[in-house]
Amino acid sequence: MKVLFAAAEGAPLYKVGGLGDVAYALPQALHRLGVDIRVVLPYYSRLIPDDYRAQTKDVAHFTLQFGQRNVYVGIKTLMLGEVPVYLIDNEEFFGRDYLYGSWDDGGRFGFFQMALIEMLQVIDWIPDVIHVNDWHTAMVPVLLKDKYQWIAPYQQIKTQLTIHNLQFQGEFPPSVLDDVFGIGRQYFNDDGFAQNGAVNYMKGGINFADIVSTVSPSYAQEIQTPAMGERLDGTLRKNAGKLAGILNGIDTTLYNPATDPTIASTYDAADLTGKARDKAALQNRMQLPISDDPVFGMVTRLTRQKGLICSSINWRISCCINRCRSSSWGPVMRTLKGSYWRLPIALPASWRCNCGSMNNWHDRFMPVPTSS
Questions:
Q1: pTM, two decimal places
Q2: pLDDT mean across residues, the chain
């Protein structure tokens, strides 16, 4: 079986959240099972670490029609383990200091989706399945059955959409149909990609993908409810027959405390003494008292969705928080002005928050601007 795994981010090149981890670990695991799997990501020229940049090779280039103009598409490649990774290059769209948060994200990732589809004929490799992830690639199933349905090699491709976070849906004005994709409005309805008068990339993927999966069986059930469905619960219930929840795993090679070089002391199930030393190293780094009290750590984006409920905890708490994008720092501060920020006042000696942006798996933090 041939599978193309498409995502907007992927470790160790660049990641913002869990999608980046999955985009690395899942293809590696599928390759070990004998799947001919390849990955396609944008080429964020300002973000890719230098050691990986040096490994990239130019494969081909072509132009595609983006609205009313032709734009450049470069294809680069490198190997991550035994898995080939294709990188879609265009400085206009991806030559920036951040992954997400631009006014033109609808166009940027619309371009990416058309480019990865048109790339397949250029590299002469047609997958059996294209596995798309979140809204950034969710229009691929739509495009295969609309804009590109006349291309014979594409007609047998099956698609799977994995929803990692339903809150982010990629909702843009209807003008993207003309200005980006160059497609008509025959699917601009509730059975297609229309939502509240806008084009909703995630909704299009849910309706058009052959299979829809989520990151756990419980999340698959939760998002079919009004409370957790982010206004797409009706669409998900209508597509319940092709919706499945598969529990996210971890890379047990990368995240192995017996061999992990980034922790202060290694340990395993037979000898846990190193774990206490790691805890002490964390307390020291975060300028917390060295004690036997429990330490609670959380590595997360700072959003209301994460539900940090700490007010009822009476133990000492260490929240070591990173990966906070500077472009979202203002909303983050406004969100956290309530109970979250009151906790350091209540527990001044036992609360620490390290906010920054972690690029790659290395311990490198970017400063976050202050905000009132």
A1: 0.84
A2: 86
